[in-house]
Design a protein that fits this description.
This protein has 134 residues and is of the alpha/beta class. It is built from four helices and five strands. Strands 3-2-1-4-5 form a five-stranded mixed beta sheet, sandwiched between helices.
Amino acid sequence: MTSHHPLLKHPFHRTIYVAISRDRMRFRHIETRQTMTLDAPRPFTTSRLLIGGFSIAQNMLRRGIRELTGSLGLAPTLVLSAVEMSEGGLSEAEEKLLLELGYGVGARYVAAATGDLSSTQILALLRRQASLSA
């Protein structure tokens, strides 16, 4: 079975999971298992929105990816997960915001999720989404 999903057809995987909480992002490179945490230089969380300061969050995401992967030019696959302020799941607007955040930093594929996910859960999510788009 051939898949057209970018993660499954590219041999050099750069899959990055980002757990987003109030004014903090935790990064995990799935293939190398490297991790890092960045605290926002200025708050991006508001009283109503996990990501209310879009440009602050996007710059922080870009910085974290660069620090975790170096300057190699391959666009990453991102799984962006809201680990706080997501009771009841993501609204359509929140999901769109996460997707725009990821594609805006140059990702080749972005998946939006909620909760703190294990590497196994992340890969299962990407496989499930790949099978839906195939």
